[in-house]
Specification:
Largest sheet: 10 strands, mixed
Number of helices: 8
CATH architecture of the largest domain: 2-Layer Sandwich
Structural class: alpha+beta
Distance between the termini: 77 Å
CATH class of the largest domain: Alpha Beta
Shape: globular
CATH topology of the largest domain: Pseudouridine synthase
Order of helices and strands: EEEHHEEEHEEHEEHEEEEEEHHEEH
CATH superfamily of the largest domain: Pseudouridine synthase
Number of domains: 2
Helix content: 10-25%
Length: 347
């Protein structure tokens, strides 16, 4: 029975829902799963109900990063969403997808279940946070016949290099399990301001994520006894060091580093290197802003208009054959030129 006040029916009160994860949800993060289930609900509210514990997985609390398995039961709290808002959200999503420009990227490896591309800097891996579309949306438009294309992991928008895309759900789950169990090897090339000490090989300061007043996320180093700190480990190897940095911090020079992450925390490399007083050149969040501005100025010599962080090597097991797989992505031309100018011995 519908109750009517002033000629308008009162919509039924929202109820708790219990959803059983099917094959399409296997391997998904909880936050991404909820976004699809709660169309029309603001993203901030989705994260709020996760943090508050109102969302449960198999009757237990779960974090946004929790990966779902087949048969998991997800409890959704009562959430009021007008049909109009839900329809509007769905229409916007379809409009964004239909207007995403089709684009292929440089392919490093491809078979029937896995695609590895060389992502350029300046391109987000997926839409959201002010970005209408990213790598995955553009790939889907370029490959309309593909039944399944999902990101295995992420790279920051300004980071270039190796990005894995699964072409089958079984491959997605296998590879994500490898990342979660730290069975993969991810090595980046980073150029920092300053002379990196030869004995500084392991960085293991805990990291904590937080939000700025405008909602933008940041990460900071915290003490080992901080309850909010997340264990993080970064290994550093010097490839070349020296040169003269006459922009911003004169005389510090540069160091080109091979950086291997043992944990995959947000902005981990950027924050760990900056915490040692040697930020990545061109880093607009944790870097030396005066130096970045000088390097990006028109006519600057040397010139750098992006962050010098590149996902260079990735080692994993093939998701089907279980054979070792090593992928390499050469430095982009603009970074190669910069190295040649400031560290000619490394070129």
């Amino acid at each position: 029975m519908k109750h009517i006040i002033g000629g308008n029916p009162i919509p039924p009160l929202p109820q708790v829902k219990l959803l059983t994860v099917d094959e399409d949800g296997v391997g998904q993060r909880l936050d991404n799963y909820l976004m699809r289930q709660l169309k029309g609900v603001p993203k901030t509210h989705v994260y709020r109900i996760i943090r508050s514990g109102e969302v449960r997985v198999n009757k237990g609390r779960a974090s946004a990063e929790t990966r779902l398995n087949a048969g998991d039961v997800v409890r959704l709290p009562p959430v009021r969403v007008s049909e109009r808002a839900a329809e509007k959200a769905q229409a916007m999503a379809e409009q964004v997808a239909s207007h995403a420009p089709a684009r292929e990227f440089a392919i490093l490896y491809e078979d029937e279940c896995l695609l590895a591309i060389n992502k350029p800097a300046g391109v987000a891996v997926h839409g959201g946070s002010g970005v209408s579309f990213g790598v995955i949306e553009q790939l889907r438009m370029a490959r309309p016949q593909a039944k399944f294309l999902e990101l295995v992991h992420r790279l920051d928008r300004e980071t270039s290099g190796i990005l894995l895309v699964a072409k089958k759900r079984s491959a997605l789950k296998n590879l994500q399990d490898q990342f979660r169990e730290r069975e993969t090897g991810k090595t980046y090339l980073a150029l920092v301001l300053g002379q990196w000490p030869a004995n500084k090989k392991v960085l293991d300061k805990p990291l904590h994520k937080y939000l700025l007043p405008d909602g933008e996320r940041r990460v900071k180093v915290v003490t080992k006894d901080d309850p909010d700190g997340m264990a993080s480990m970064t290994l550093v190897k010097i490839r070349a060091a020296g040169g003269q940095n006459t922009t911003g911090v004169a005389g510090r020079g540069y160091s080109l580093l091979e950086v291997t992450i043992k944990t995959g925390r947000t902005h981990q490399i950027r924050v760990h290197l900056a915490s040692e007083g040697m930020p990545i050149a061109g880093d607009d969040k944790y870097g030396d802003f005066d130096c970045n501005k000088a390097l990006a100025r028109a006519g600057a010599q040397p010139s750098l208009k992006r962050m010098f962080l590149h996902a260079w090597r990735l080692r994993c097991k093939h998701p089907v054959s279980d054979e070792p797989l090593e992928l390499l992505a050469a430095l982009p031309a603009e970074l190669t030129r910069f190295v040649a100018e400031v560290l000619p011995q490394a070129a």
